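ok so for the tutorial part 2 we go from a plain amino acid sequence to predicted C-alpha cells. step 1 is just haveing the sequence, like this:
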Amino acid sequence: MRARLTLLEGQDMPDTSSEEVQRLFKAQHAASRAQPDAPVAVRRERLLRLRSLLDQHAPTLAAAVQADFGMRSPRLTEVADFFLLRAQLASTLKHLARWCRPQKVRTPLYLQPARAWVQRQPLGVIGVISPWNYPVQLALGPAIGALAAGNRVLLKPSELTPHTSAKLADLVAQFFAPEEFCVVQGGADVATQVASLPLDHLVFTGSTAVGRKVALAAAAHLTPTTLELGGKSPAILDADCDLRDAATKIAHGKLLNAGQTCIAPDYLFVPKGNEAAFAEAYRAAVARLFPYFEGNPDYASIITPRHLARLHDLLREAREMGADVQELSAAPGTPAPPRQSLGDGIARQMAPALVFGATDGMRLMQEEIFGPVLPVIGYEALDGAVNHINAHPRPLSLYWFGNRQAVRDEVLARTVSGGVTVNDTLLHIAHENLPFGGVGDSGWGAYHGEPGFVRFSHAKPVLVQSRLSAGGALYPPYGARFDRVMSVLRKLL
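step 2 — the prediction. this is what the C-alpha cells look like for a chain of 493 residues:
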C-alpha cells in the first residue's frame, strides 16, 4: 500500500500526468540498469551541459523567478542562485576525476597478500523535490552532485514558483535526454507520487513537518533520503563582539530574500543590557542595506499572500502575549519608490521587525519564521543561551559573533547544529569543501562537494584474493592446525 501524504499547497500549474511520471521514471530506471556505471567523460559532459544551460539562460531564469515572487531582484538571484551553482560546478569539474578513482584501502596482515579498494558507483535514479525560496539553486544543486556521481535525475520543483518550474522543465528538456535528467511539474499529488517511487535516493528540501511525510513515503520502498529541512537557527553575540559589524551581518543574513532562507538566523541572543544598543545598530544596518522596503527592487516579496498573512499572525499573537514588536520604517528622506512590480509584489513586501520579550509559549518561538522578523533575547551567562538551544530541536545552522576563541570553542563543543558560521551568517553554505545538511529535526544527510558525491554514490568494497593466499588453513575440518593458525592470528590483533 502506497504511503499517502499532503505536501505544500500552491498555485495552479500544469501537472505532469501520473502516467507520464511513471513512464519517465521507468525510462531512467531502465537506463541506469542497462548502464550501471558512467565513465568520467560522460559525467563531465553532462555537467558541462548544465553549465551551458546556466550560461545561456540565466537571465530568462532570473526573470521567471522575478515573475513568481512579484518583486525579487535578478541580482539577488544571480548571487544566491547562479553564483553558488557556478561555484559548485567549477569545484565538481575540477575534482571529478579524483572522486571517481577507486579508493585504495590498507589490507590487514591476516588477509595479505590480497588487495582491496572501494569503488564508487552510481546509485541509479535520484529524485529531487525542491522548494520555492531559491528555486534554481535548490533544484539544480542536488542535481549537480547526482550527475557527477553518474546518476539519472528526476526533479520535481515547487508549485509555488510555477514560472521558474516551467522554465526549468523547458530548459532541461533542451539540454538533456529524459532518461538522463527530466523535470515533472505539479502540486501535492505529483510530489506525493515522486516521493512514493522506488527511487535509489530522494533529496527533499522543505519544512520539517513535510520532511517527515516524505521520509514516510520513501520508506515504503526503503528509499534512502537526504532531507534538508529547517528549524530555528540561533545567533549568539558575545560580549566582546563588534556590535556594528555583527548587526550588519545579521541584518544581511536575516533579510536576504526577505528572510525566506532556511539557514537565516531565526532568533538572536545578546548580552543582557545590550538589547537597545543592538536594536539601534540593527536599524542603522537595515537603513544602509534597504533604505526603503515598499517598491525596493532589492528587497524580495513574501512569496504568497498566505505566507504573508501567517507572518502577520505571528506578530499579532506575540503582541497580544506581551512582546514588544518594533517594525522598522524607511530611512528618513527616502524618495518615494518607483512603482515597478509584477502582480501584487509590492503589497507583499513586509517591513522588517524586531521582537523583544518573546517567550517559548509564542508561535514565533516555536515555528521557523521564514520572514523578516527577528526575536532578540537577552542572556546573562553563556549557559543560559546554550541550555535554551539544547532544550529545543537541533537547528540547521548556528551563528556566533565574538573574538574570544575559548568562548567560541565552548559554544561549538556544547551545541549540535547542521552547520556553523563564525562572525558572519549564511556563508558556510557557499564553501564547496564543507558538507551542507541538517541534524535531527533539521534534516539528515548532506551534499555539496565530495560529501555530496559520496552521498549519491554506492561505496562498493572490492577484495582481490592472491594465489598465495593461506586462507585454506582456516577451512574445515578443524583440528590442531586450525588451532595453531588461530593462535598466531590472535597475537597479530
